[in-house]
Amino acid sequence: MQTKKVFFTNQQKETLSGVLHLPHKETTKAVIVCHGFGSTKDALWIPKLCDTLAKQSYAALRFDFSGNGASEGSFSDADCEKEQQDLASALAFLKKQGYHSFATIGHSMGGTVVLMHAPTARPVKAVIAIAAAIHTKKVEGRLLTDNQKKELRQHGKVTITIHDKPHTLTTAFFTAFEQQNVLKSMAAISAPLLLIHGSDDHTIPLEESTAAQKAVPHLKLTVIEGGSHTLMRGNSADLLIEKIHQWLNEHF
Length: 252
Prior knowledge:
Blueprint: E1 2-9, E2 15-22, E3 29-34, H1 46-55, E4 59-63, H2 80-96, E5 101-107, H3 109-117, E6 124-130, H4 139-143, H5 146-155, E7 157-162, E8 165-170, H6 171-178, H7 182-187, E9 193-198, H8 206-215, E10 220-224, H9 236-251
Parallel strand pairs: 3-4, 3-5, 5-6, 6-9, 9-10
Antiparallel strand pairs: 1-2, 2-4, 7-8
Helix pairs in contact: 2-3
């Protein structure tokens, strides 16, 4: 197994930065892993997951969405629709590298993005969304205080703190979320679909995934008991990675 830095451009001609984990044997199967809101390709359990997938004979790409991490672009422009375009650009890049069959995995906002992207991406043969925001009209209420909401209404933008650094969000960021019907997208996904959620997620509650399971019967829901939103507490990350590679081995 080896890793290499890769770069590709999105629709806006911005350069996106990624790391490609390569198995020892050649394969035409690739997994794309998408990070969450205000995060990066190097965060949480993402590198370890990609290492594990490469050892399981999959190529695995983790990359920074535009405006995040080492990728070009403005954070304030990085809404869920643009990130869906970035994911499409990542898939196109891997196609040029000779890969033909794909699985997409996303955490939190990245999970929402893979659910939005999958219905029209026919090369995607398996989809995993981890602690995804499904009821997207609730995003503003979860990210902003009442005073920040007033600031957004007055100025069309608001500054929030992520990892001790200021970041600007615009009205367009929240509008893009509110226009999505993620349940409808999920129902239209023909590929095998897995949701994973921590039972102790206080950012996006487990109820979002359990409600989705009732609305979209063909999906599978796996609950990590005691898991937080980041799934970094205790052995949650190891359980998550184990569940992912087991499910991919059966369905991809």
